[in-house]
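lol ok so funny story. i was supposed to be doing the assay writeup but got distracted and ended up predicting the structure for this chain instead. priorities right. anyway since i did it might as well share w the group, maybe its usefull for someone
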Amino acid sequence: QVQLVESGGGLVQAGGSLRLSCAASGRTFSNYAMGWFCQAPGKEREFVARTSWGGGSTYYADSVKGRFTISRDNAKNTVYLQMNSLEPEDTAVYYCAAQRVVGSVWNYWGQGTQVAVSS
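and the output, tada:
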């Protein structure tokens, strides 16, 4: 079992920045690929970014490329999402998730942190 706890959400003006954190506990953190997802009101949850177990490989949704950066610190069991040049369309609840087998299901999810971007 892996427990994930997100933090760092809040209200920010368009063009501003936020850094989300996701602290993991339980099984060996470095055995899991980690990802960030978001869900806006009335919409499906969608993929934002992913990092491999070692952090050497990352992948982003087209909508956030060049603005968001995912990173991880395995010594701290934490994954981050640096969000720059935020837009009102980025307003959503952001979730982190852990994936044991690349390309398979996301095995564990956090409870989410709210990000609101005002225009």
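Residues 36 and 108 are 12 Å apart (CA to CA). The chain has a mean pLDDT of 95.
back to the writeup now i swear
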